[in-house]
Amino acid sequence: MGSFLSGAMNENFKKQQEFMAINAQLQLERQIVMQNEMRERQMAMQIAGSREFLKYYGTFFSLAAIGLTAGALKGKKPALFIPLVPLGFVFAYQWDMGYGTLIRRMKGEAENIIGKESNLLALPNGLPSFEGIEKARKAQRKFPIDL
Hints:
Oligomer: single chain
Number of strands: 0
Shape: elongated
Order of helices and strands: HHHH
């Protein structure tokens, strides 16, 4: 009778372990999907913000270009064209960020860094460990509590 009970308990225990493993895998998959969706939403907000900034900056750049060109031609001062150079670079960058291929190029460079220069991504002193975090936590308290 004892072996019958222990056999049933072992079978039940194995089923419980399988259920917990499947549940942990599902939870991890859900977290990965959720984190990816949040990342995509953040990226979409950054691109949308860049496009919105481009509208305002494009208006400013256009007005500045017209004003500086008119002033340079009317006053015969070609030096007034000089501010258009840096303003043009900023405009081109913003356009590339909002509508161009800058994001794709940045992604490609990031993949290159991860693949070929991963040593640049290492944290100083390595990954934090539980023991190191606990040691720092206890050092910050006047009266350390061991749990």
